[in-house]
Amino acid sequence: MITDTTPSNDRFLRALRREPVDRTPVWLMRQAGRYLPEYRATRKRAGSFLAMAKNPDLACEVTLQPLARFPLDAAILFSDILTVPDAMGLGLYFADGEGPKFERPVRTAEDVAKLAVPDMETELRYVMDAVRVIRRELDNRVPLIGFSGSPWTLACYMVEGGGSDNFSKIKAMALNAPDLLHRILAVNTDAVIAYLSAQRAAGAHALQVFDTWGGALSPAMYREFSLPYLTRIAHELERGAGAARTPLILFGKGNAPYLEALAASGTEGVGVDWTVELSEAARRTHGKVALQGNLDPAVLYGNPDAIREQVRQALDSYAEGNGGSRDGHIFNLGHGMSPDMDPEHVAALVQAVHEISAR
Amino acid sequence: MITDTTPSNDRFLRALRREPVDRTPVWLMRQAGRYLPEYRATRKRAGSFLAMAKNPDLACEVTLQPLARFPLDAAILFSDILTVPDAMGLGLYFADGEGPKFERPVRTAEDVAKLAVPDMETELRYVMDAVRVIRRELDNRVPLIGFSGSPWTLACYMVEGGGSDNFSKIKAMALNAPDLLHRILAVNTDAVIAYLSAQRAAGAHALQVFDTWGGALSPAMYREFSLPYLTRIAHELERGAGAARTPLILFGKGNAPYLEALAASGTEGVGVDWTVELSEAARRTHGKVALQGNLDPAVLYGNPDAIREQVRQALDSYAEGNGGSRDGHIFNLGHGMSPDMDPEHVAALVQAVHEISAR
């Protein structure tokens, strides 16, 4: 366990504790990605996305690439969101240009009965090794964020067998066999807690749960199939105390209707997308949690002046809802970056955040 | 003009005026569609989707198909959302299995300068002819709804050149050249008003605007690029008075944050998706408009018992937020139907709405 070593740049961790910082910290979802030529070169060498994610040295290499270019305030483990169901034996693969798929999706009571929490230091050892290598290579410059998909979001891929436009299979299960779905979600929750705990033990300074598909649910279904499991993670995930605490961030696309509930879940941070004003999000969570977000990633298609103006508006919106203070805000996008984005625009964004938010 | 003939089943129009009705009216977005074998047969005969949409007799045929199967309370014109930009000369086509595309997308000031409101009775005559044929064949059994895409949603397709995951091109235009985008939106708004007026003149009893992509915008951008143009339509579209009024419904995916503004726009109805509780939508619009929606279309993948229970919850949710009354509610899905849905389940849904909502 090396999480008790505070990084020299600890803005991100301080902001997550809602402590004063000199500038608003910033990192970007999917900051290690195809928009960087050096990432594409590593991926080419690795042969495939999965080969890269499963090789700790290559995962470390791409994790650090954006930090070499931009003064980002956190690194995030390079990995796939579907490592856990893959380790459950579902057979993750990537069809050319099609996104992730599972060879053995979970559809029947028999499929569900076979699900079990994988062993973290054997079946998911490559992830923990990546965390350890990255921690060593980061040399305590900035914090390292570990992550997992949420129980609901993992279940979406597990039941659908891949991505989906309308989640027809998992929603049919929610309606026709809700107990079966709850069994999947219960195993997923145990697995996510074990997975994040192992990442923490391996050296992650903070942990983020991506509930990418929670927003596809109606409020009644969200409150039955996603929120209770996020809340259980926030309650049961052991993460230490005080400055040595490994804080948790619950990010969710489309989670704006549930900010009060998420702020009351026991998490330290909540990540929001761009469909809600940060001023409103701050008012509705009134200082209970740090907020992370929330520029529309498409802002990076704007020119540097427009990016700067959008950054200013987001920073000011947060402060407006937070009693005039910029503390407790981690700047980020509201969703991941895309391959066709310009690294120069990322540089403009990071610079604007740091300059405009300087206390 | 034949809009002054009241249909024998006028529940839908009465609900839009928030008048008492014997049962809550119901229709379904994309109720004429590929989930019906008779639709697939007509489409096969037509040769292509566009050939079917551009032939008034075939458009009439598929418009009426769901009414022959289910006791729906309204018909909706079968047409494409992109007829208007097609008539502007952008060259609509459907690449196999890929959705709509434009041969000549709108990207530059030169492209924008060329845009003009098409002539409704020449360039879009096939749509008005379809409205006239459907009105004749409907024989005043139920009301006929005409429709258009919203100025913003049409602009998305016009600038992107087709569908898009992240709206990179139009959002870049919004950031880098907002005046150019406002010129597109102004022309689109004039065109939508002319288009809906012509459909009304041809016999449509009600008019719906689909702002399918408004919810992809940040609140600041929605308030700049979508809402003002919807409001202008609600203000400027002439639609008569009293029982002869041709009411307007503004539907928007992801429009929950803006319900107060939409209710104040001057529209008669607002359509909402399933990410907001109808009780909340009713409370926040407090009787200013009729509400239409809002079951998750994926509910149709549930079994008939589950569908009935979801219908009951939606009906009760509306009444709860509307002071205990079911009046002013038009039952619908929160988005369009999908091709793999079971017609028997549609029958179960329609029956459940009528039975449970009987006064």
What's the structural blueprint in terms of helices and strands?
The structure is a homodimer of 359-residue chains.
Chain A: H1 11-16, H2 37-46, H3 49-53, H4 56-69, E1 75-76, H5 83-90, E2 92-95, E3 99-102, H6 109-113, H7 125-138, E4 144-149, H8 151-160, H9 168-176, H10 178-202, E5 206-211, H11 219-225, H12 227-236, E6 248-252, H13 259-263, E7 269-271, H14 278-285, E8 290-295, H15 304-321, E9 329-333, H16 343-356
Parallel strand pairs in A: 1-4, 4-5, 5-6, 6-7, 7-8, 8-9
Antiparallel strand pairs in A: 2-3
Helix pairs in contact in A: 2-4, 4-7, 8-10, 9-10, 10-12, 14-15, 15-16
Which terms would index this structure?
homodimer, 359 residues, alpha/beta, 16 helices, 9 strands, 11% strand
Tell me about this structure.
Two copies of one chain form a homodimer. The first copy, chain A, is of the alpha/beta class and 359 residues long. Chain A has helices spanning 11-16, 37-46, 49-53, 56-69, 83-90, 109-113, 125-138, 151-160, 168-176, 178-202, 219-225, 227-236, 259-263, 278-285, 304-321, 343-356, and strands at residues 75-76, 92-95, 99-102, 144-149, 206-211, 248-252, 269-271, 290-295, 329-333. In chain A, the strands form two sheets. Chain A has a seven-stranded parallel sheet. In chain A, helix 14 links the parallel strand 7 and strand 8. In chain A, helix 8 crosses helix 10 (178-202). The radius of gyration of chain A is 19 Å and the shape is globular. The first copy, chain A, starts with 10 loop residues before the first helix and ends with a helix. The interface between A and B is medium-sized, with 34 and 34 residues.
